[in-house]
Amino acid sequence: MSKLNQSVGSADFWLRLLYTLLLALAWQVTELLLIAVVILQIGYRVFTAKADPRLAEFGSSLSAYAAQIGRYVTGASEQKPWPFMEWPTDNAAAPVSEAPAEKI
Q1: Is residue 104 part of a domain?
Q2: Alpha-carbon Rg of the chain, whole angstroms?
Q3: For residue 34, is it within any domain?
Q4: Long-range CB contacts (within 8 A, 24+) of 29-38
Q5: Across 13-17, 46-50, 54-58, 87-91, least confident range
Q6: pLDDT on residue 7
Q7: Is 43 within the bounds of a domain?
Q8: Nearest to 91 by CA among 70, 63, 50
Q9: How many structural domains compose the chain?
Q10: Considering the domain boundaries, does residue 16 fall inside one?
Q11: Could you report the per-residue pLDDT of 19-75, keeping only the tens digit for each?
Q12: Residue 71 is part of which domain span?
């Protein structure tokens, strides 16, 4: 039996393909949520002149989730993202600054 027949015929291959298809759907939902966060953050900034820290934290963890999906579906990681593991936290994100950024 050839290596191709062994890999395509294995249950692991089909299970990973199923996870990849499901995570592709999760990617699309994540993308829409990120767009919504961006729009809400812009609206918040229009009225308050600063970023909403809760939206920034959610956007950061949502971005980390998208990165986890990307790593799994491309084969860079064997660790399946949420709901198979904990939702990513905002630990690595930079704090939201209250002051406007300096112009370069």
Answers
A1: no
A2: 19
A3: yes
A4: 30/62, 30/65, 30/66, 30/69, 31/66, 33/62, 34/59, 34/62, 34/63, 34/66, 37/62
A5: 87-91
A6: 67
A7: yes
A8: 63
A9: 1
A10: no
A11: 999 999 999 999 999 999 999 999 999 999 999 999 999 999 999 999 999 999 999
A12: 29-81
